[in-house]
Amino acid sequence: MSTEKKIDSKKEEILQIARELFLTQGYTKTSIRQIASKVHISVGLTAYHFKSKREMAVEIVRRIFHRLAGYTKMYVNRHETPVLYSATLICLNYTALSQTPYRSFYEDILREDILLDVLIETGVETYICIRDKYCPWMSDEETEKMGWYGNYVSASMERSLVLYQGMKPLIEGTIPEIILKASLGMWHFKGDVQVIEEAGRKGREIVEKIMENHKNII
């Protein structure tokens, strides 16, 4: 095995161990020393592959997010029904990560804004699909601004609703539905309220099917 492949292999091993520890005991309670010990390497060698524990977490969350997006694309066409796609992915993300085994990890990545970092880097592709279907007159620059705003607001709303449960009774709808409305709050097109509300309902039904048909979704 070449040196480059050995480095990649060790980096992947570190990620797998970090993932197991993060998901079972949470991000905050997991230390670099624990990860290094499980991989049987020094803390210094761990730092050679990853500058920080946060860098590991961002990569792990990025992979989880893309995995969930992959499941969503199996059931919803993002180009034909972009609002439904967004609703389904938001609901799937919440439903999968809020399960008991992953709850601590989920709360940690919200509290530390790790999920926010991942959402921001995913770009605005879904918002472009929404623009193309409902607001074709909107410029690329406007769409990009709306996309970044939507990503930031949805992540911030998710953080608040999950970490501070006292907010929930004050806002109508399920947590995924509220996040969806927040992410698309600046969009105005014919029938927008009805489209968003229907997408929230249908998205929940699709997520039930995904969770039923696919085990170990995380």
From TrEMBL:
The keyword DNA-binding applies. Residues 8-68 form the HTH tetR-type domain. It comes from the Bacteria. It holds the Pfam family TetR_N. Keywords: DNA-binding. SUPFAM superfamilies: Homeodomain-like. Gene3D superfamilies: Tetracycline Repressor, domain 2. Transmembrane segments: none annotated. InterPro entries: Homeodomain-like_sf (IPR009057), HTH-type_Tx_Regulator (IPR050624), HTH_TetR (IPR001647). PANTHER family: ACREF/ENVCD OPERON REPRESSOR-RELATED (PTHR43479), ACREF_ENVCD OPERON REPRESSOR-RELATED (PTHR43479:SF11). This is TetR/AcrR family transcriptional regulator. It comes from Candidatus Blautia merdigallinarum.
